[in-house]
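Here is one chain, start to finish.
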Amino acid sequence: MMNIYNDYLKEIEERKIQGLHPKPIDGAELLSEIIAQIKDLENENRQDSLRFFIYHTVPGTTGAAAIKAKFLKEIITAKAVVEEITKTFAFELLSHMKGGRSIEVLLDLALGNDSIIAKQASEVLKTQVFLYDADTNRLEAAYKSGNEIAEEILESYAKAEFFTKLPQVIEEIKIVTFVAGEGDISTDLLSPGNQAHSRSDRELHGKCLISSEAQEKIQALAAEHPDKTVMLIAEKGTMGVGSSRMSGVNNVALWTGKKASPYVPFINIAPIVAGTNGISPIFLTTVDVTGGIGLDLKNWVKKLDKNGDAIRNENGDPFLEEVYSVATGTVLTINTRTKKLYKDNKELIDISKALTPQKMEFIKAGGSYAIVFGKKLQTFASKTLGIDTIPVFAPSKEVSIDGQGLTAVEKIFNKNAVGTTPGKILHAGSDVRVTVNIVGSQDTTGLMTSQELESMAATVISPIVDGAYQSGCHTASVWDNKSKANIPRLMKFMNDFGLITARDPKGVYHAMTDVIHKVLNDITIDEWAIIIGGDSHTRMSKGVAFGADSGTVALALATGEASMPIPESVKVTFKGEMKTYMDFRDVVHATQSQMLKQFGGENVFQGRIIEVHIGTLNADQAFTFTDWTAEMKAKASICISEDDTLIESLEIAKGRIQIMINKGMDNHKQVLQGLINRANHRIDEIRSGAKPALTPDANAKYYAEVVIDLDVIAEPMIADPDVNNSDVSKRYTHDTIRPLSFYGGVKKVDLGFVGSCMVHKGDLKILSQMLKNIDAQYGKVEFKAPLVVAPPTYNIVDELKAEGDWEVLQKYSGFEFDDNDPKSVARTGYENILYLERPGCNLCMGNQEKAAKGDTVMATSTRLFQGRVVEDTEGKKGESLLSSTPVVVLSTILGRTPTIEEYKAAVKGINLTQFAPSHKLLVK
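Its structure:
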């Protein structure tokens, strides 16, 4: 055992070199040795052991938490004596453990025979909210058997004293600004993808926030203004676009927030962030998780002429003028009573949207979880006592408009809502608690999700969740030492918790590193479903899916619920005819481009649901659109499908789920078989006419309606990071969509990437056809730039093998992945060959492999953020241009962007992903 402690000391010394404190303790064996040294009064390590026990032990359901709670119980019951830890202090330490093993111990003490100890334990229990069925069942049983302490605790819960007795939110919150960047700030700036392996080590991961220089400036501001909170700002942009929300918010909180508890290391809460154009919706939800504040500053506005129209520059972009300055070091005041932002006692803007009654509760409680669990606890206590629930929490906003129909997403929310006024139809703007059908956890945030589950003391998945999946796609490219250390541990935790896992902790079935979004798209078998996933691209083509932070994923897994306002929707329909030489990816890009043009540069998609009427494409192909809506800054998207197309999609899903079952991935509850059964039932409903495919009402109301003209899409469209735009705020947004001809056939391309969640089997078949055509035309296939191909799923590989296309790809490849011998080191250089990489995210994620610094990359992926796929060099900025599969392939053959004539010739006779607007879809 002593070796474990010595190893810990060795690790501490290694961390000191990195400027880090001791890593928090979560293992039972190490803490057991530490406790043994505490009990040994002569032990030379006793004082350090006391410090580790008190200040460095992870609470919740960890092995260490169980040992710590048990030892504190021994101290309270006088079975152990530790001079430095009195009984009162032991109770205080239990109170800061917040749930799990500590609740079990507190209930033991509160329901025990020692009346004095029982009273003390009950006072602590009254402050706790993270109780689960096993805990509440004990309380209920004790109450029914006449236990007075149990009754007293339940009465306190019924009054929600765990909330009402908390200190009120202070009226004036003083802040000092720090401009983190101009333009949209991606969460990659706050939590870079290439540092994903360290996210569960909060202090270490905190070192990657923005830059060391920025961290020094933040520290200097905090030292200069000790009574103020440093607020991070996206000047002229939106804060927190992209993925990795929880780790991004954790990093901001670590540098600018306040400690959640003096006895829990590196968990900070209550960060304050802001953007000229507000906060990305998912990032704002994550801020709520920590009890923080997100502000929409509106400090730059469009300059208007005398007619009230926007004045535009030569590029057609509106001129912006500054309303007030938020330059770094500006001192501002948030008034939580007036809900206004002030500077030098002068009102700047109304910030009531950031300080709604619900958000004020999150701030008071230290985060949204405490409110969610608190409401459930109050309801339980009231029901057990046989009394009405006392109104304590802010009432949910219920918007119901007579005579107005429902959009598709409003229908889904009404179907899945819980706790709303019976019989009341709710429209957009209503605050709703909904049941969650499908949940997805991905591997670079999964360790954080497991930590969140431990901290909220959850041990098993909620029985009301239809299915949940833990992916392995973000660490599929390189099976390195970091992956070997982290991923098996994650898979075991999630498998034990009740999820279907990409890797089998027992090693029975083959690792399935399929892209999480593709798997979730398959296991969603009801278009009325609500899906929560730990990635911004959780955008299914069946149901409505919300990308979420790792904490919201944990909450959905633990409770089977999520809370959010019903979002407004924007309706997207199509007219005209798609040209045969175009690929559907071009329609996706054109949608964004035409929308911006139709609304004078305003992104009407931002923060809203995109309801896309695209019913003639099956779920695989339609996913290309719904997936991209994350880059359109939409909150989510929903696909309106025809009956026949939906049945086709469900049959595809059934086949894929059956493959998972055949591999041995189902669990003892037969979750996967249950999904197939539900899919069969849904197909029967559609075929019989009992319940046709979901459509909106004819009199539904939308924020906006966008009609995309297919006739005007005459050439391939490319999303360009526009890295040299003189206006920094215009760089690295997905709003710069350019036609192929813009590049004149001369822009050098250094590397091509076909992969990520944006491609389906059809894209790989297009690649195969193009290679055969080029070989026939030129007598050989020669790449002037490397082409990296990463199929999204193993199913696609198997289907391509069965149809003969994989053999073609093998013929022209210079590298093919080997699952029996996966790469253990990231590739640092590329030859001008075709690489057939392991299914997974690969270059799109940028956490394991990247293009060479300064490269211009043409990719099918979704990310064009700075440093994601490719980093800069001193003399050249890396560029990640996003386009269709045929454009990527041809660019690597030529080593440059093709001309439109070269493109048309290359795709002649190839079956591209085609789309025709539906003539059957009529609103009902």
